[in-house]
Amino acid sequence: MDIEELLPQQHSEGDKNEKKKSPLLSLEKDLEFYAESIKEVAVEIMVEGISSYPIFIAHQHEVSIGEVILNRKELNTDWTIQASTLEEFIEKGIINREKKELFLKSYKKPEDFMCIFVIVPEGANFVYYPYSAKKDSI
Fold first, then answer.
1. Which pLDDT tens digit goes with each residue over 53-75?
2. Which of 81, 31, 25, 26 is nearest to 58 (CA)?
3. Strand-pair partners of 129
4. What's the whole-number mean pLDDT along residues 1-6?
5. What b-and-e string marks burial along 16-31, b requiring 16 or more CB atoms within 10 Å of the CB?
6. Cα separations in angstroms, 34 against 4, 67, 73, 110, 138
7. Which of 30, 41, 94, 110 has CB 3.0 to 4.6 Å from 89, enough for a Cys bridge?
């Protein structure tokens, strides 16, 4: 799933100037800013044998999973990022044990993509965001 899939659909009805801005637009900006730090933590999780499946939680409130690695208040950004693993998500019941294989089939290569569990008031979902989202133009 790409980040665009979580953005609210824009309806053609009503005043087009009153479109609600999605908080996920600020998430994309923060992920670009955080990319190098998130990748370092992902590599550390894998190299230390903690997990082969790092998952990062992006939120704007308090959550009780993972450990804070990038605090929005300290960094003057919009989103806090916490580091976790597939194993913790299963242990806490966020990912059902029976759905583990299905999750692993969609899990993208952690050296190239950050697996982000985005939590917003409307719900939560997984997003895979490339570490190098901005391509250098030639």
1. 999 999 998 899 999 999 999 99
2. 81
3. 114
4. 42
5. eeeeeebbbeebbebb
6. 19, 15, 14, 15, 24
7. 94
| Residue 138 burial (10 A CB sphere; 0-12, 13-18, 19+) | exposed
Integer-rounded Cα radius of gyration of the chain: 16
pTM comes to: 0.80
Q: State the alpha helices, DSSP H only, in the chain.
A: 23-47, 72-75, 86-91, 100-106
How far apart are the C-alpha atoms of 35 and 133, rounded to whole Å?
Answer: 9
- CA distances (Å), origin 122, targets 29, 51, 113: 20, 29, 24
